[in-house]
Each structure stands twice: as C-alpha cells, then as structure tokens.
Design goal:
alpha/beta; Rossmann fold; 5 strands; 42% helix
C-alpha cells in the first residue's frame, strides 16, 4: 500500500553507501516516489544526460570516493540549470556549503536525517508542492 506524498515524482538518489540506498528504496516506494539509485555518481550523470527530463529531483551525498557531490552537481547544472538538488551530508565545510548554495535551487539534508519526514514533508516543500 502506498502513502500519498510522492505522486509519482522520479528522483535520482546518489550515495556510495549501499545500505542507505536500500533503506531509501523501500521507504520511497511507500510514499509513491519513483527513484533510481546509484552508488556511482558517474553512472547517475550518464543517466541524467541521456534523458534530461527524467528526474524532478536529485538527492546526492556530498562526500563520495568517485566524484564529490559538488562536482557532480556542477556537471548537472551545465546540462539542466534548474534541476532541484538536495545534498546529504554528515559534515560540510563552509566552503563546500557556499559552493553548493551558489549553484541555486539546492537544499541540505543533514545526516542523520529522519527519512520518513524527508519523504513526507521536506521533499514536497522543496519542490514547491503543498500538502493536501
């Protein structure tokens, strides 16, 4: 049974922690989000480039071994300037925060964040949806 919330919104979730992706996956289905999960930001970037209209939101970790989230977001911005991006982070330097904010249309999810509240409230608010 799905809970109202995502209304079929497609999201790309990028994090090198596969356990986090698995938890995200099961809860997103409950809240009616469609999501693609990537443990490698390069693969996510290829998918986004191949179909720029596919996603309404990207949620990405800032610290990843293959490519940091800021670089990843800058590459997305070069193709899709207004795509909303949420950064997940445990700790972020002032410099990284400033670089992320300079990209525009971004938000931060400070780890550990309440996943259900994020899906039910934070994402719809960030995307400008109103609760019914």
């Amino acid at each position: 049974m799905s809970i109202e919330g995502g209304a079929g919104i497609r999201i790309a979730v990028v994090d090198d922690e596969k356990m986090l992706l698995n938890v995200f996956s099961s809860l997103m289905k409950q809240y009616n989000y469609h999501a693609d999960f990537f443990s490698n930001p390069q693969k996510a970037l290829e998918m986004i480039i191949d179909d720029p209209a596919r996603y309404k939101l990207v949620i990405t970790d800032i610290r990843m071994p293959q490519m940091d989230g800021i670089t990843f977001a800058k590459r997305i911005r070069a193709i899709i300037p207004k795509l909303p991006i949420m950064f997940m982070t445990g700790e972020v330097s002032d410099e990284s925060r400033e670089q992320a904010l300079a990209l525009g249309n971004v938000a931060f999810l400070e780890k550990p964040f309440p996943l259900e509240e994020t899906l039910k409230v934070s994402i719809p608010m960030f995307l400008g949806k109103t609760e019914k």
